Amino acid sequence: MALSYPVGSVRAALEWPVPVALQKVPRPEEPVVIATVPSATLLGVEGQSVSVEVHVSQGLPGFNVVGLPDAACRESRDRVRAALLSSGLPWPLRRVTVNLAPTSVRKGGAGLDLPIAVGLLVAAGELPAESIAGSAYLGELGLDGSVRRVAGMVPMVEALDSPAVVVPSDCSAEAALIGRHRIRVAATLGALVACLRGEAPWPDCPAPQPAPPVPMGPDLADVRGQHVGRTALEVCAAGGHHLLLCGPPGSGKTMLAVRLPRLLPVLDRDDALAATRVHSAAGRLASGDGLVVRPPLRAPHHGVSSVALIGGGSALMRPGEISLAHGGVLFLDELGEFPASVLDALRQPLEEGVVRVSRAKASTTYPARFLLVGATNPCPCGEGGPRGSCRCSDGARARYHRRLSGPLLDRFDLRVVVGRPDAAALLGGPPGETTADVAQRVAAVRELARERGVRTNAEIPAEQLDAVAPLSPAAAALLEYRLRTGSLSARGLHRVRRVARTVADLAGAPPLIGEEHVSLALGLRAEVVASEVAA
Amino acid sequence: MIGDAGGELPAEAYGAALAGLPAMGPARLVALLSRWPAADAWARVGRGRAAADAAVAGACRPDPAGVALGWKRAAASVDVHAAWSAYGRAGVTVALRGSSAYPSHLDNDQEAPAVLFARGDPGALEARRVAIVGTRQCTRYGFDVARDLGRELAAAGVAVVSGLALGVDGAAHTGALAAPGGAPPVAVVGSGLDVVYPSRHASLWAAVAERGLLLSEAPLGARPESWRFPVRNRVLAALAEVVVVVESHVRGGSLHTVDAAIGRDRLVMAVPGSVRSPASAFPNALLADGCPPVRDALDVLVALGLSAATSGVRDRRVRETAAAVEDLDPDTRAALDALGWEPATLDEVVSRSRLEPGAASLALARLEREGWIRTDGAWSERVVRRAPGRP
Fold first, then answer.
1. CB nearest B278 (choices: A389, A393, A532)
2. ipTM higher than threshold 0.85
């Protein structure tokens, strides 16, 4: 479309700040006004308190934000100006400098819009300085003056020391989770200014909505047959042992895995806060969500990048899938299809329960303690049964499983082969035990683990095994036989003993581990990767 | 001509040199060596005159001139003296068809190789000979049956002939070597006798060369090219009196061996397998076509006329096993019954036996230690029971 007006004039009209004539006439000295407003920004999943200093002085009208703001943060000057003007508030035609202290920390996001606007109003004399004392501000501004929610409310509020915090009105539930602050809400900038001037009372926080009923979710009772798969799932939940499900397509691997989170007990306060912080920082908490107390389930597709799984990013650090799964379950379907580099990146977090992400500009630590559930086909054609039952050669099978590196496979204490349930069990069989019944046993076993001083049986230190999980003579003989025939490694021995402890705990917690417990632990730890030569 | 410089070389040296030329298949070698003595054939090849003969040209279709040119070029760079001394160093003997060193059982064969390379004891071929063949991707069942057949036949003085491939072939020779004082095994391989293939069978290969006989129609250094294996199978069939197919998928390589054996009026026998097992599809089809079944070595020995048709041994074994099953405790027996004779996972045992997973895994652990079952990854499979405790 041809422009029907001179471009230059339009640009001049849009030019901002509006040029004003320089006045040579000396004006009376005006005092320099500095307003300081406490706020916070997000660093990884942790909050970082930020002091917003606004300086308004004589000079060429202009507006600068300094103190390592990122792009979204630097753009706040445009949003703040528009919000002020559309709220009927005057824009000071003077030199405005906003400093975000401490300057060494990179500030991201739009959550600093509100404190900048408030600081500007104070510095410009529109608000009395004492009206904002004792309050911190968090919120993004819309061009119409509305105050919008920002991600990471929980960790940011946690980082604030001021007695009161003003937040967007749909963030009040999230902000109140910390419980140390008086939470005030602002729907629009205009309403906030009215409250601060004392012209209107503070609006009530929206009454915390009753927590939405926990979605019932899939129940274990729906799983017909699958006796071994169910047992493995129960042991996995009770002892915190990672689980690898191996079976042909349609054998119910996913069906089992999605039922795992509801078998786990609700998160304790520390874990819930950690999980909430992660979800809040990732912007995944909806308005009205409370603490994340239900163990989450994350099931990334096998196309996931290393950064999306582990966390990171260069400009804006974000928690990855493993941190979103903190306290819950990370389900990796088609484990063999994940790039080997991505899978190997899981090993350190699996070991330590946290992931340290370091980049040139920042480094951070995310919580990442999750139950890993993997699912894989037995061989490339998917139908694989025992050796010789399909045309996949030993070599093809070995190549298929080579992607699952030995060290990663070693992390799976439970490795079971599940088959397609037969038609009779699917159609006529009795329903399985319900999730609620199994969850009760799981909770009891986890309580036993806590009495032993560990979170779960999977974390029992090797040197305590003899004290915590002593073996009966028959159990010791069975393990010795397996070690002698080479079907169990010394490294696997400890893992089998921990699983056997969980199995025994589920069976009434006898102090001595019996042969039946060890044999089930061994049975649930099959080598899904076939050895290469029949001997 | 480099090759003529020293003179005094035996005909076998030229036969081996001819076998090493490019594009030299069994038919071409036979055409050359049946037309001229080996030294003359080599001289003609060296002059590029080999294809001038109608019989040789017929074997070299569709491009006799091109083949002859290729041979001439390759022959120009061959030092027959040096090549011949390499055979001496490798301990590989060369036999031309019609010579006294050539195995008499092969001599009459229509498609007998013109040149045969051997390592080990030529006397191994004097025993009765049974070929045990099958798929490389065998099941535990196939592996065990092949191994047991190999051991029992060798113990009965029968030379086990096989191809040293992975799977059934290797199992048969492993068994034959395990029989104390057993007949020496015979292996017919596709590659040169200094090229061990598959490399996983290096020690088996060495043991067969030590205790028995290794045969090949490929010269030293020949790679295991895929065309050499079907060709090898006809030698295997020609050498054996009986060919036993243990396990083979429908389109497996055993098909070539069986075709070659039937064409030579050799008896083909088959090991029955589950009708659901793809690895037993071919032997089961052979049974349906009327091949005699092989339940154990006794059936083969009867076919060879080495044993009267008596099933006493087998009956006693069945009775003993049944008695031992009676002694098992109820859970263990239920698990064994649920297992049947095909590989099954813990999950399958649990759903068939209705035992709790814990009880089932305990039963399987006991069965394994007492020698009733073997475990391969997640699969347990019942095996013919051996002395308890022996892994």
1. A389
2. no
